[in-house]
Amino acid sequence: MTATLFRNGLVFDGHVDEAVPGLEVLVVDGRIEAVEQAPIKEANAQVIDLGGRTLLPGLIDAHVHVFAISLAASKNETVPLTQMTARAVPRIKAMLDRGFTTVRDTGGGDVGIRDAVAQGFIPGPRLFVGGPGISQTGGHGDHRRRTDDRYDIDRNANAFMFVHRIADGVEQMRRVARDELRKGADHIKVMACGGVGSPSDPLETIQFTRDEIAAAVQEARRHGKYVCAHTYTSEAVRHSVEAGVRTVEHANFIDHETAKLVASLDAFVVPTLVCYEVTAEHGVKLGLSPVVMDKLAMVNKAGIAMLDICAGAGTRMGFGTDLMGEMEYAQSYEFTIRGRAQNPADILRSATTVNAEIIQQTGKLGVIRPGALADVIVCEGNPLKDITLLSKPEETLRLIMQGGRLHRNDLGFAA
Question: Is this prediction's pTM over 0.85?
Answer without folding.
Answer: yes
